[in-house]
């Protein structure tokens, strides 16, 4: 879905055939037959985190959707997106190349402002030590009280620096389908539902802010339906190793994102030239990295400090025998993958029982 409230802008120039993209730091598409410029701004979702192909400290994957769009449309890409970026980071570090000659800009931004990584980390904990509800509530407070002003400030700066550019802002997909199939995370159905609802609220603020600025807004949620974490054809990674790759679009997901963004780019091309863009679609079946060794993921769970005095007290208050937790964490330190897996299965059973008790008490 593409929503527009357009002001007068220079439209893109049609290029008959897209040429190859050359990787640099930041990634840039090689100059085409004209000087059409495309600046890819944003956070980890724009930098291609989740594709297991970082090129620099900002990640900037050759499989990120900005690179795919540049290939399809034959655009000269200036890849500025950076993993971990907030709205203020974009203003401070990514807008230097924008000017009156910039033709098109794309961006996803805002997830880090509201603490996306911290919220996911909190909600992934076993229920008796997690404050998922509180983490989501804190994120919503930031979203409703601060984000409209942050978006307004950032979007105004982009407009001032690139007054002739077509600017397309993307929302975020829902991450969950109601099933947590990963042995090393502990999302309950109610937590996944609240996380999806919070994503909807964030997308609503992004949409309103984008349209108010005169930018295009694209909504990825319908395209990603059926491709969430634990769906048969995942476009979003669950818990992965390295951890940074977790809960981000994989290579197929970046193809999906490119598909969502592309009509906004090709529409301006068609208006100028009277033609439709001619570009071959990217393949939807792409290599998926192998799953991490259970021992490596066991180290992640050990980082939750389940056997710390405070968390053992929480387990006891929840009706869980602290000795069970101590035995499980001891097994998680094993070099035997089978032993680690069995320990995680025991921990999952304890978490499910805890969640069932909570549902009964409500």
Question: What level of helicity do the residues show?
Answer: 40-55%
**How many helix segments?**
13
Largest sheet: 6 strands, mixed
Mass-distribution shape: elongated
Task: Spell the H/E element sequence.
Answer: EEEEHHEHEHHHEHEHHHHHH
Number of strands: 8
Strand order of the largest sheet: 1-8-7-6-4-5
**What integer is the average pLDDT?**
87
From the alpha-carbon coordinates, what is the Rg to the nearest angstrom? 22 Å
Instruction: Indicate the structural class.
Output: alpha/beta
* Proportion of residues in extended strands: 5-15%
Unreliable runs, pLDDT <50, ≥5 residues?
5-26, 28-34, 276-285
Q: Give the termini distance in whole angstroms.
A: 39 Å
Topology:
Layout: E1 2-3, E2 21-22, E3 28-29, E4 37-40, H1 44-47, H2 65-73, E5 76-79, H3 87-93, E6 104-107, H4 116-123, H5 132-145, H6 147-161, E7 166-170, H7 189-212, E8 216-218, H8 221-224, H9 251-273, H10 294-302, H11 309-317, H12 322-332, H13 337-361
Parallel strand pairs: 4-5, 4-6, 6-7, 7-8
Antiparallel strand pairs: 1-8, 2-3
Helix pairs in contact: 2-9, 3-6, 4-5, 5-7, 6-7, 12-13
Short description:
This protein is of the alpha/beta class. Helix content is 45%, strand content 7%. Helix 12 (322-332) packs antiparallel against helix 13.
Description:
By secondary structure, the protein is an alpha/beta fold. The chain contains 13 helices and 8 strands. It has a 6-stranded mixed β-sheet with strand order 1-8-7-6-4-5, with helices on both faces. Strands 2-3 form a two-stranded antiparallel ribbon. Strand 2 and strand 3 form a beta hairpin. Helix 5 (about 130-145) packs parallel to helix 7 (about 190-210), helix 6 (about 145-160) crosses helix 7 and helix 12 (about 320-330) runs antiparallel to helix 13. The longest helix has 25 residues, at about 335-360. Residues about 5-25, about 30-35 and about 275-285 have low confidence and may be disordered.
């Amino acid at each position: 879905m593409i929503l527009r409230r357009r002001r007068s802008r220079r439209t893109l120039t049609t290029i008959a055939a897209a040429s190859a993209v050359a990787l640099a730091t930041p990634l840039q598409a090689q100059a085409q037959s004209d000087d059409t410029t495309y600046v890819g701004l944003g956070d980890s979702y724009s930098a291609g985190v989740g594709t297991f192909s970082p090129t620099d400290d900002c990640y900037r994957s050759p499989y990120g959707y900005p690179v795919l769009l540049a290939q399809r449309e034959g655009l000269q890409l200036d890849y500025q997106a950076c993993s971990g970026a907030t709205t203020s980071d974009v203003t401070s570090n990514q807008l230097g190349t924008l000017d009156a000659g910039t033709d098109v800009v794309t961006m996803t931004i805002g997830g880090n402002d509201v603490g996306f990584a911290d919220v996911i980390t909190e909600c992934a904990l076993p229920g008796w030590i997690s404050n998922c509800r509180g983490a989501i509530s804190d994120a919503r407070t930031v979203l409703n009280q601060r984000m409209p002003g942050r978006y307004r400030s950032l979007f105004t700066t982009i407009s001032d620096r690139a007054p002739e550019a077509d600017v397309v802002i993307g929302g975020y997909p829902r991450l969950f389908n109601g099933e947590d199939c990963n042995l090393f995370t502990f999302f309950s159905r109610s937590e996944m539902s609240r996380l999806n609802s919070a994503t909807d609220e964030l997308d609503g603020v992004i949409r309103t802010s984008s349209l108010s600025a005169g930018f295009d807004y694209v909504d990825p949620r319908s395209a990603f339906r059926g491709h969430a974490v634990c769906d048969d054809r995942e476009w979003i990674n669950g818990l992965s190793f390295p951890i940074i790759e977790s809960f981000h679009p994989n290579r197929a997901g970046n193809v999906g994102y490119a598909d969502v963004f592309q009509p906004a780019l090709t529409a301006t091309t068609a208006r100028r030239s009277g033609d439709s863009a001619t570009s071959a679609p990217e393949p939807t079946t792409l290599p998926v990295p192998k799953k991490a060794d259970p021992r490596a993921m066991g180290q992640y769970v050990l980082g939750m400090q389940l056997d710390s005095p405070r968390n053992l007290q929480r387990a006891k208050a929840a009706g869980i025998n602290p000795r069970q937790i101590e035995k499980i964490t001891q097994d998680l330190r094993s070099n035997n993958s089978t032993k680690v897996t069995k320990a995680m299965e025991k921990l999952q059973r304890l978490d499910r029982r805890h969640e069932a008790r909570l549902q009964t008490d409500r």
